[in-house]
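Per reviewer request, we include the raw input and output of the structure prediction for the construct analysed in the revised manuscript.
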Amino acid sequence: MPLTPQAQSFLNVVNQLPKTAFHRLPDMQAAAEIRRMHEERPAYLAPEWVSMHSVQNLSTDHQNPIPLRVYTPINTDSALPVLVFYHGGGMVIGTLDSYDTLCRQIAKQSGCIVVSVDYRLAPEHKFPAAVEDAFNALLWVSKHAKELQADPQKIAIGGDSAGGNLAAVVAILAKKQLTTPLKCQILIYPATAPHADSKSHMECANNYFLERETVLWFHKTYIRSDKDREDFRYAPLIAEDLTGLPPALVIVAQYDTLRDEGVAYAKRLQQSYVKTTLSEYKGMFHPFVSLAGILDEGKAAITEVANTIREYMSME
């Protein structure tokens, strides 16, 4: 189907704006510019802000502390399930603040505590720094769950785009190292492949918000060398063994450069006997969930995420 009227109206405006060729700038200059643009997005584009019982800014107790933001939706004496969430941004942009409203919505609708992770970004911190922070944050939440009034037996992970990549990778790492199995993994248009060469990367290369040139620049900025592309922690799609992973919800968008690698990863999970729901949002583009303030499908996707978390957290 074509872009929805809401999506088309938004892209008509975006595509008339001057474009910055980030891939032609020095990495640090490009990163500073794209971060500035990301943080200056109008507030009305984001999901609706909702109040929480409490919001705490904490950090892990590792040698290199990882900033966390803990969203507790309700006041209760009972331990709540917890979702560890990794934001998107190509491993280069994204902050706790820029994902604040999305985390609030997920916490409110799912009834779970959400722990948002402020992992280290490239180019200052190349691969695998983000992976190390993502996994260490999960271990910290598991260890300190009771202090957060969370149930250590009911932990899930999730993320969007680059954060979906981290969630997929952490799920693989956790299978071997986490004592209690994760309840589920939420992968919202995840980046999973070592190269940006799929059909959707070519079909959606231009004018669909996340352009292929930007994806290539994110790849180049994050890796130390092409050798990193052979590591499943960079590209979970090439992991040898995906059996035994937690159930997954994989959300993709029809007009997204990352669509095909999300679909490919969902199919690999299914072939590995992992219970997996693949949900494609027709007429949408990347990153429609973060634009739930103006896109009805973004609102629907947040509700799907929350309902999926509720479903798996209720299972014994």
